Amino acid sequence: MKAPHSLPTALVTLFFCFSALPGLLTAQANTYFQQRVDYDISVALDDVRHQLSAQLRLTYTNHSGDTLREIWLHCWPRAYGSDASAFARQQLRNGQTDFHFASAAERGTLDSLRFTVDGVAAEYTFGDSPDLLLLQLPSPLVPGGVVVLETPFRVQIPASFSRLGHVGESYQISQWYPKPAVYDRAGWHPLPYLDQGEFFSEFGSFRVQITLPENYVVGATGVLQEAAERTWLLEKAATDRAALAQRTDLSEGYVREPFPPSATTRKTLTYLAENVHDFAWFADKRFKVLHDTLRLSEVGAAAGAPPRPPKGGSSLAPQPPKGEQPGTTDVWAFFTESQAGLWREATDYLKRATRFYHQHIGPYPYPQVTGLQSALSAGGGMEYPMITVIGLSEDAAALDEVLAHEVGHNWFYGILASNERDHPWLDEGVNSYYEQRYMAGYYPDRSYTLPLFGAIDLNRLGYHFLARQGKDQAPDTRSDSLSYLNYGVGAYSKPSLALHELAAYVGTERLDAAVRAYYQRWQFRHPGPEDFFAVLAEELGEDFGPWFAAALTSTATSDWRVGPRTKAGTTSLAHRGPRLAPATAQISSPSGSLDTVRLHPQQRTLATGDARSVLLPPAGNPLDLYTHNNQRGGKSWQLKPGTSAERTDAKQLFVSPLLGYNAHDGLLAGLALHNRTLEPRRLEWILAPLYGTRSSELAGMAGARYRLLRPTPGIQQVLLSLGTQRFSDFTLPQTDQAYAYQRHALKAEVFFADPPITGRERRLFIQIIDLRQDRPRFENSPQPVGTQRQGNRFYRLGYTQRRDRELRPTEWSVALEYKDRDASVSSSFEASHLRLDASFRGGYQYEADRFLRYRLYGGYFLVNDLRERATYPASALALVDNGISDYRYDDLYFGRSLNASQSSWPGQQLEQRQGGFRAPIGPAFVFGRSNDFLVALNVDADLPFRPLPLGLFLDAGYYSFKATSVEPQQGIFSWVGGVSITAAAGRMGFYLPLVADPTTRNLLDQNGNVLNRLSFRLALEGWLPWRWVDGLF
């Protein structure tokens, strides 16, 4: 019978129907769509008040399957009016204080909004950031529906802090009107304005009417509609070109050029733009103009498949706009007298850059392309549809480079409109790759050169500098979560290097074909990284592996090493790092011929025969983490002054002359030999022998450091270091003989991983310091009869945390120290102790470059053999940080055992490790010393007078002191204040005490004249050329 089976079958069928329903709904929700926004804006410029008065009519078409009840709008000029805006916070985070300290007259805003929707008044509120506006629709906007939003608005144009701004009567009008956020499958994307971080916008059309004084020259997105104005611009362009050709005095630098008076009559200019997502315009009465035309139909566009939608979607790509003369593209250049000598060739640069992208990526669909020079505070250039604005350039090639990059943005983000805020690499990185190829084609011999360092690859250097310290971030990180350095490396450098790596593996032509397919499929749409990867995978097949996406979505590294050659004629290969990437090898035969071979990610041997050398060239392996191990055979030795970028084909040794001085050794002369390149290395070492002309003794430093990169999650890096130093530190007056110390230090530092955007550094360290001091030995005689060696060993465990914030930087540390006596030396001169030290530094920047800084310090002996004695060795707590109280020899001093009362300037050098008193009171006085506890406060206040860096300082301390062994501990309060001249955030300074408590004043008076009461700070260890060996000495 079938009846018993019918119910289970029906239940199974029903179950599958209900199971499939969420999938069907999900598929519908994930169907690609994009909204459309059409703008009609009338705007008038008031160049006296620096204001825009405008009327906006915005037509919003809902192509989604959702009913909308609200619309998020960007009102980005409002970011310039509040310290609470995301822009203001980011400026401070990136160390830029100009906006924070700007006057009210320099700031900007957008106001006077009165929204109607289809003629009905609409309410709105502002979001968490003041430049985000949530508009409530009076009636729901159903799928396929259209609404018309209208409002007046006024813009107060700020000074030039970022993109929108003005310098005098030169105007850069961008990100200036209320603009709907993107609504897509992920929902709304409201984006507060940022300087570091770009945009995401809907396609549509623009009709913009601009009214301003008649003698302004305007460059803008779109096509100018007034025939008379176009004729005037063409005539001006012809006149300016002829004049420039005749001049021999054209400047290639900045020229101060006055603004002519504004005309009393006004003009209205109309611009139309189709299939764009933004509109910008620029106005300056001083603009020179050049014009040319380009027939791209004669150039030929990149071949490619016809546009096709992604799976599950439908093509919404609108038709390319039509110009007045089909097939002809207008090319315009606007610039001032500044760098006119460079800009007279600008139209040629614009033409060939447009040809390059047109040929390699896909057709340029717009009727004009414009390059414009004006004030710009957001990077070297900024792109808008059909127009780019750039600042001053270093030379003609640099101008060509920036113009090419910004022209390329018409494709990458202009037409392929990805979310720049969430995925900045998808336009910046891909565009940088093609810009680099453009420059390599037209400037094959050009390289970036740093004085003393030679030619370097800035992209590889930037990546290696961050990645080798574990400070890099994945390129596919939101712009507002990238640190300032990582934005440059992650958004631009590393993605372009990843594409060079891919091109070296699959071939440039195949990669170009894949990118052309990406362009054809996604033009005038909003692709994401997954869409880019999908097209590459489809076009490149099995040659496209997960290693490419890993370079962009993670910090995983790849490090190839070329090993030794076997008797069988093969060369071993090794790979370290979680990103198994391919490589390109060059095999050099004995005759000198080169054979290029692709290495698959899993390949570990290479048939090389009797090859003279095997090389993994940097050009083919640009993301290889360490390149010194990428060649076997044929390496030369390079001896170079200073340092340079790391080379694959050479064993590098660097040398630098050194000069120094201290009162005991006299003039110190010698050399520093080291292996440190501009990029950090896994193993770094330095040897710096010096000779003292006064002591006739050998002195100097040596050290090595080994780096463990990201050994475990949560750890950025571990540094293992070993250092030694030897200098004279004591001179016996009777014989004028100098005696030396030797300091050996072993240190392990653990740097914890923190998001670089926080500016926080956390470090745990363990250190062992072995100190030996030679001193004269006396045996019942006033004259020394020999030398005795004194020694101590210190064991330290500490933690430090600092946070670099421009307005309120902080740093705190705590350390536990055990000091033991070493019985192996001839004399042990101090008792043992267990000591706890803690300090906190803070500051507040109250106006530009003017700080109030403070420091709190506390020290306490948990165990001290000398607590109840009135003997105060060098290791006692000290209010004054001179050479004597630097008992671990952490710092370098000009006169370690001298003091100001000896009328010797080296003895007036002070530091700030314990009490930090700026009072040069020498060790002859038992002042400010304790075997028990000490707390201190140091305050520095920069005075607002400019340009001298004058300030005031105040030091106060309270400590326990025993005058004699039989007296009880007593608390003593001391203080001193005066004037200072400081630099380098207080690391250099001169301090003159003026007021103090009676005891301190009396001791200072015993120094004699004013010059002997003056102290100075010069943190020498921070200025040494080998300071990169952190904490070795």
TrEMBL record:
Q: Which GO-annotated molecular functions does the record name?
A: metallopeptidase activity; zinc ion binding
For this chain's record, the cofactor binding note is:
Binds 1 zinc ion per subunit.
**Keywords, sorted A to Z:** Metal-binding, Signal, Zinc
Cited SUPFAM superfamilies: Metalloproteases ('zincins'), catalytic domain
* Region feature Disordered, mapped onto this chain: 301-329, 561-595
Compositional bias per record (Polar residues), positions renumbered to this chain: 585-594
As given in the record, the signal peptide range reads 1-29
- So where's the catalytic machinery, residue-wise? E406 (proton acceptor), Y492 (proton donor)
Domain (Peptidase M1 membrane alanine aminopeptidase) spans: 362-543
Which superkingdom?
A: Bacteria
Q: Which Pfam families match?
A: Peptidase_M1
User: Which co-factors does it depend on?
Assistant: Zn(2+)
Keyword Transcription set for record: no
- The entry's Zn(2+)-binding residues are H405, H409, E428
Residue runs in coiled coils = none
- What is the name of the protein in this document? M1 family metallopeptidase
